[in-house]
Amino acid sequence: MLKVIKSLSCLILLQSALYAQKTDVGFKHILNKDKSLRKVLKQTQKYGIQIIYTQIDEKEGENPRFKSFYYNCKPDQYFYPASAVKFPAVLLAFEKLNELQINDLNENSIMEVHSEITGYPDAFSDSSSANGKASVEHYAKKIFLVSDNDAFNRLYDFIGQEEFNEKLHQKGYSGTRINHRLSISLSEKANASSPEVKFYSSEIQDLIYKKEKSENQTGKYFSSSPLPIGKAFYQNGNLIEKPMDFYSKNCFTLGDQQQMLKALFYPESVAKNQRFNITDVQREKIKNLMKMLPQESDFPHYDSNEFYDSFVKFFVFGDSKAAIPDEIKIYNKVGEAYGFLSDNALIEDRKNNIRFLLSAVVYVNSNQTLNDDTYDYEQVGFPFLAQLGRVILKYEQKRATKNY
């Protein structure tokens, strides 16, 4: 099986190479027509910018047509994906529930994590849910509403490091490596470990399924070579004056991110092995969670002053706290850490009958020091991604009306 996966990975890498070393000239021209974008794009290498824009033309009775444009996309140019990895966690968690084929086990079953990992707590409940209990669906909701880190960690517990990676690689997402939990410092061994996870029916006494604790036995999913970022970094309060090596960090290439989004919304348009085993009802549920705004949720409830509409919507509105118009729907997952900002979205303008895919990453760390909490998010990152979204949205609005 591993030989098959490796062969498949080589094939996908060869396919990725088709766009690895080129920028579409016409797309570059569109971007550079905007003065504010051009100012940042002049320093593309400094900011590590990568962009994929995919047009979607849909007519009744016909299969959707896709046309993708790339700007400086290089699968071998590493960027830290941060919270972007939460998207596949949701898809794989729903898929795993289905593939277990256990009566009454589903995304609403009560979920408990019994941890024996040092420094990593149990999770027996969730006070932010309507019934005070945790579930896969509730964790998914928190992930898309505010990018909750603990919610991701609990889905990681359920899936397990080994299965997380093997499943994605089998599906052809070879540019993805998921090595660690988020926002908690654990050893490599701890991150390779998966605690016991139990699922119950609505009555807590009724155990439906127990996943035994386990440890990844297939080896590490680290980079085969160093991935130095920056010039210095802080570790345990001490300044280390050398680049930070991301070889053991998570990886999720921009190409994989957008292809995964396409697999969710248009499963028939991707190869069978790239699809996720989820029902149509679950598919719609995930899509609805992706576009939901914090103010639209009662459980969990979020303060709209802190969690405004664009809190995790970087494209189009990421530089503003104003309300997002009802006709604009953004189905997305962002990433933000170490100076890296990314967004992977399907953007829908219901008033003008428009839908397109947009994925981008920018690195904004002018002092080249990591872990100092001093990044150029507000000055460069958010304005760039917001304006990028506006420019592409305006360009789409000028294209012929599409029916879907």
Structural account:
- The protein has 404 residues and is an alpha+beta fold.
- It has one domain: Beta-lactamase (3-Layer(aba) Sandwich).
- Helix content is 33%, strand content 20%.
- It has twelve helices and 17 strands.
- It has helices at 2-20, 25-32, 35-41, 44-47, 86-100, 136-146, 149-159, 161-170, 188-191, 254-265, 280-291, 377-398, and strands spanning 50-57, 65-71, 110-114, 176-177, 193-194, 196-200, 207-211, 214-215, 228-229, 232-235, 238-240, 244-245, 251-252, 328-337, 340-349, 354-363, 369-370.
- It has a five-stranded antiparallel sheet with strand order 2-1-16-15-14, with helices on both faces.
- Helix 5 (86-100) packs antiparallel against helix 6 (136-146), helix 5 (86-100) packs parallel to helix 7 (149-159) and helix 6 (136-146) packs antiparallel against helix 7.
- It is globular and about 60 Å long.
- 43% of the residues are buried.
- Residues 1-21 have low confidence and may be disordered.
